[in-house]
Amino acid sequence: MSVEERAVSLSERAVPCGPVLDAAAAERAREQIAKAAARDGWSDLLAKGWPALAPVFSAAPYLAALARRSPERLRRTLGEDPDVRLAAILAEAGAVEASEADPEAGGARLRELKADAHLAIALADLGGVWTLDQVTDALSRFADAALRAALALAARAEVARGRLLASDPAAAAGPVPGFFLLAMGKHGAFELNYSSDIDISVFYEPSALPLAEGVEPQGFAVRLAQAVSRLMQDRTPEGYVFRVDLRLRPDPSSTPPAVPVAAALDYYETVGQNWERAAFIKARACAGDLPRAEAFLRELQPFIWRKNLDFAAIADIHSIKRQIHTYKVDDRLQAKGADLKLGRGGIREIEFYVQTQQLILGGRNPALRAGRTLAALAALTEAGHVTPEACAELTEAYADLRALEHRVQMVADEQTHKLPESDAERRRPAALWGHDDLRRFDAAVKRILKGVNARYGELFSEDEDLSSRFGSLVFTGVEDDPETLATLKRMGFSNPAQVSSTIRSWHHGHISATRTERGRELFTRLAPRLLEAANATGAPNEAFLRFADFFSRLSSGVQIQSLFLAQPRLFGLIVEVMAFAPNLAATLARRPAALDAMLDSRFFAAVEPGELAEAVTEAVRRADGFEAAMDAARRAQREQAFRVGVQVMSGAAAAAQAGPAFADLADACIEALAPAALAEVERLGGAFPGEVAVVALGKCGSREMTARSDLDLMTFYRAADPAAASAGKGWAAETFYGRFTQRLVAALSAPTGEGGLYEVDLQLRPSGTKGPVAVSAAAFADYYAREAETWELLALTRGRVAWATSPAFAAEAASALEAALRRPRDAARAARDVRDMRALMTEERPAKGFWDLKLSPGGLVDIEFAAQHLQIVHASRGGPLRAHTGEALRALAEAGLADARAVETLETAWRLQQDLSQVLKVALDDDVDPAEEPRAFKALLARAGQARDFRALQAKLRGARAEAATAAAMLIR
Question: Does pTM top 0.70 for this prediction?
């Protein structure tokens, strides 16, 4: 007996799917269709089928429109067995494939056939005639037929244009040998939903394409793929065939729509991800050169089904599941607005439940490799990996969720998977699912979602959670996950799509840190921690963007990511640094190797005396040559400066620790590079009989340096004989030590392949820019005895010897500094000079704003001038000399040379501004207003200033400076 003989028409088999939701809408549709039925003689058929049609047309305007637009379509659907009707539609699609129609006419016919198929499949589904498998199989088979026809139409157009040589379309290789399409996702598994797009991957073998001479294979393949896509998804008044998604190809953000076979295989073998392995579980050849497509899939089998998986690989597969937030007992799942596909308890959770186990177990057990979800679930149960109870519950839930998904889409042919928020609109899919009571419908949906989510939570339940307390964080696939975007928004990110896209690109191996499989496995675990840490800073956007800049520049990611995962506190601090310290973040981005310092167990320990010098000295000692020494010093300095900067930002180091630490680091660089500079000059000009010292002035001299302080230096020398000359080129002392100074400045400041080190300023030497760059001992003594101005003496109070060719000469240079300062001064004249100098500075260099801690009235300059002034006027009578401002103030008060209360006022303001300055110099550029920074940074700054909050800090600073300005004016008189 043939199919036709066994067939029973749909009108005889269909039953009502549910209540008639809108009787008036149903009656309007019936009246319009009845006119055509009466005219064409099938009124009895309509009457027989109407009880099943009425609830459909009352709730699904799209299906009613299909019937009204073509009553003949409805007649054939009602009057034929659904299987026979489907076979006829597929045959007509095949006729389009074999016809000589042009693409426009062929596309129009395919759109008509899609409408025929949609109405027939929907009524067979809603009428209870077909099972879920029959429904999804029918949709998928029509998609295959439409793709084959579209490819044939596009190929004939290319032949007509002379770019493609004609081939036998009936041959196994299809209309374009070497060119094939793979059905992916639900289409590949014959599980298409009602209004689904179709996921297609297009591949080609360049050498096999029968192209006309001069036609470039890639350009041709891309044009052909785009032509097929247009035929399928262009919208006209007749509708469209299928939306097409080509993004499941290798690395879709950087590859064309059609990918050469060799390039695809190389991609999957090197950077293919586990979610792509999962996608290929469902892949199958659907159009084009089918033998080559099958061969391609066979070659991919070792990628898809790995027989040997190490712990890390298994954990990464687990991560596909663990990125989805599992609801706890007290969390709420509800039908209103529920995403039946991607939401909690939805279809995706069942698919992931199955696919993750397939990926782990299917390599050794081919019986577990089924493409269809329920078939694979049954196989897992048969093999003992899923309990029969779980299998039964998930099978029933899957069928219910897919049925609901179809009904949501049948209402208006929208590619949606969400139940409406509106009660009135949610009644439509409820009615199509047989419910006339919305409350009971919602309760039934809720039970399904909770049951699936609970089962999902049982899988790999002992593993690390890769979601967030804010919700799911899913970065698999080629498109943004809606739940994840909502999670990112809740976490405070202003552009969730950008964050999601960036993370997905890292998963694709677009950066060195994730180019290896191990790097990607580690990043899967690190990603949620990164987002949580960024949220915790209170400035998630800044933290993420700066981390992205840093992370994308790493040459390798395994060691650093392992460190971050092993030390979450450290990782949180790094992300905080990214948020609040753009200068440190920029350093890391430009030179990620600075992070190597964090591998040292002493990273957070207080800096011990001599420790930084040891690090720099050891690095320079291993260098071969002067330029190599410069690079080595820069690397070592950057690592250690980063260490100190992080301690400042974390609150582990205040100004009392940070200033000396930064100065120790500068000293270490001078101590390491000065001998190298001297050796270089001796190599060029020969040895010179004499001694030289490097004197540190300014912030370096007083050991109050910040992260961005420059170096004020002076070189001080003495020749063994005034007439001495260098052994090689006969350079005099001034020339020899001038060359040494120039070399030293270059060593400390010139940019190299490792970047810069310090800005160096020699203007505080005698005669400033007018004098020689190196100062002889005699010239120094003479200048400060007869010519030095008051400002130069103030600057000299911060002088100290940072390096010398011998301890004896270091002592001689220090004695020369002290002798210059202890000469008698006219106190009144000195005070007048200091006041005039400060007034001129205010006029020429006024404070740039409230946060100019240096030049504001009562700021650091006023306090430093007060300390320096008191030292130069009392030094001749044995008063204390201290390079460090705070130590100088205390020594002067203890010696009874300054009012104790005024000194205490200055010390308080000085300490506050030093602490704030350390944080600001580490974190921000000078022209950045802290008041405009994120709230969390302002809280950090308030903590550094020991204030309750930022507003209190501003008040405290304002008051301290006002008092300091008064105290300084009282002392400078």
Answer: no
